[in-house]
Each structure stands twice: as C-alpha cells, then as structure tokens.
C-alpha cells in the first residue's frame, strides 16, 4: 500500500505543476520580459552620495540607456555589436571591477587623449578647458566647464579638502578605455583613484532623471527633478 502511494505522489505533483504553470504562465512571461528589458535595453540606476553634485543629487533615479554604445548578450558583458563610441561629456553608469561597485561618472578622456589636471583645471590634448564661475554655495564654488563636446556644471571646494586629487598626469588614455571624473571634483573617487575604465564595464548612458526622493527631507519627492534632462 505504501509503495503504491509513493508511486502516485510524483504523478500527483506533476499534475499540480501543470495546473500551476497553466494559471501563471502569463505572469512568468511578463516577468521574463521585464528582466530581459532591464538586462539588455534600459534600466533605472539609483544615485547615492555626492560625487556627481551639482548635476545629480543623492536620491535621484536616472534612466540608463543600455543600447547607447553596444548591443550585448543579455545578462553578460559580451558585446554583439558596437552602436556608437562614448564621447567626452557623457554621463555613464559603470560596473567597476576595481571599485567592486556600480558608479556614475562623466567621461572626460577618450582613447588616445592626453589628460592633465592642475589644481582642478583640465587640459585635454594640450588645450585647456574653459571655465566660468556661476555662483558660490557655502564652502563650494559652482562652475561651468566647457569640454570640446559638451558644457556642464561642476562643483569645487573652496577649502583644502583632497588637494592631492586636484592635480593628475599628464597621462594618455589607452585603447578601449576611458578617463572619468565626478562633477563634484573634490569629493569623487573616479579615474584618479581607480584608473581608466574599460569600455566593457560601461553599462550605458544617462541623459535624464526619472524621479527623485529627498533623503534629507523624509524622502519626499523632488517634483522639479521628475523627468528632467541632464547636461
């Protein structure tokens, strides 16, 4: 009797699984599509910390275009085709192996560029970047930095914080690698700390904030940042 009952259990279990799959297959198909989309096409990335001030705030959720540069096999870093090359000024999401974390930074140097920094002033291929002081914000100065391809804001400290990181190079960016900086120049661990970023570690490009929650104000929404573009 026991042997007969044990023989029926697997058959009964298979019946339960067939019913479960039939009733839930649409849900699993939808779940697979969502995971596939997030892995290969686009995703959201959370901003934590101050390294990209004033461009990005702690609590921002940014849109990540994963097809901006490469078409990759889902769930891998294997590129099937190159769509375009990252350019100076792009805000990119990086899956850094050296830092062992995901980072959001701005590309400043592309392969072949000679990068030199002197007291936070950038010199790219022997040409000094143009700067304009916009305003002072407490112990910080907000400037406008003019790169060859893009103009954006950056934040500099008026104090003596991290003075060692204000000068760098000169150094040449290797092939298939990129030099990245945070817009908050005196408060960012970037290529000055972790060296160059390999192209395959660049997940995608961000050009907009989807929504934002203020961590210093009970996580209330920052409505003015919803769907706002990024320079």
CATH topology of the largest domain: Umud Fragment, subunit A
Q: Radius of gyration, rounded?
A: 23 Å
The CATH homologous superfamily of the largest domain:
Umud Fragment, subunit A
The main sheet comes to:
5 strands, antiparallel
* Element string (H = helix, E = strand): HEEEEEEEEEEEEEEHEEEEE
The SS-based structural class is alpha+beta
Q: In angstroms, what separates the terminal alpha carbons?
A: 75 Å
CATH class placement of the largest domain: Mainly Beta
Q: Determine the mean pLDDT.
A: 89
Low-confidence stretches: 1-6
Put the structure in a nutshell.
With 231 residues, the protein is an alpha+beta fold.
Written description of the protein model:
This protein has 231 residues and is an alpha+beta fold. The chain folds into two domains: 1-40; 41-229, Umud Fragment, subunit A. Helices cover 19% and strands 41% of the residues. It contains two helices and 19 strands. It has helices spanning 2-40, 191-194; strands at 42-46, 60-65, 70-72, 79-82, 91-96, 101-109, 114-118, 121-124, 127-128, 130-137, 140-146, 151-157, 168-172, 177-181, 197-198, 202-206, 208-214, 220-221, 228-229. The strands form five sheets. Strands 1, 2, 17, 18 and 19 form a five-stranded antiparallel β-sheet that branches. β7 (114-118) and β8 form a beta hairpin. The longest helix is centred in the first third of the chain and has 39 residues, at 2-40. The N and C termini lie far apart (75 Å). Mean pLDDT is 89; it is low at 1-6.
């Amino acid at each position: 009797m026991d042997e007969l009952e044990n023989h029926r259990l697997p058959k009964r279990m298979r019946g339960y699984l067939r019913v479960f799959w039939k009733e839930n297959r649409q849900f699993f198909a939808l779940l697979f599509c969502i995971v596939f989309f997030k892995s290969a096409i686009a995703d959201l990335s959370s901003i934590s910390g101050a390294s990209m001030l004033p461009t990005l705030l702690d609590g921002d959720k940014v849109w990540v275009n994963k097809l901006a540069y490469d078409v990759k096999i889902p769930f891998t870093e294997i590129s099937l085709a190159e769509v375009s090359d990252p350019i100076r000024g792009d805000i990119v999401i990086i899956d850094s192996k050296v830092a062992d974390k995901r980072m959001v930074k701005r590309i400043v140097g592309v392969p072949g560029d000679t990068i030199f920094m002197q007291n936070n002033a950038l010199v790219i291929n022997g040409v000094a970047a143009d700067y304009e002081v916009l305003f002072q914000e407490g112990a910080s100065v907000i400037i406008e930095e003019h790169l060859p391809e893009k103009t954006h804001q950056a934040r500099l400290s008026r104090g003596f914080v991290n003075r060692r990181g204000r000068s760098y190079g000169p150094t040449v960016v290797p092939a298939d690698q990129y030099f990245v900086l945070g817009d908050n120049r005196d408060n960012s661990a970037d290529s000055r700390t972790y060296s160059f970023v390999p192209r395959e570690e660049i997940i995608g490009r961000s050009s907009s904030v989807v929504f934002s929650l203020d961590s210093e104000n009970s996580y209330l929404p920052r409505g003015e940042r919803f769907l706002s573009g990024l320079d």
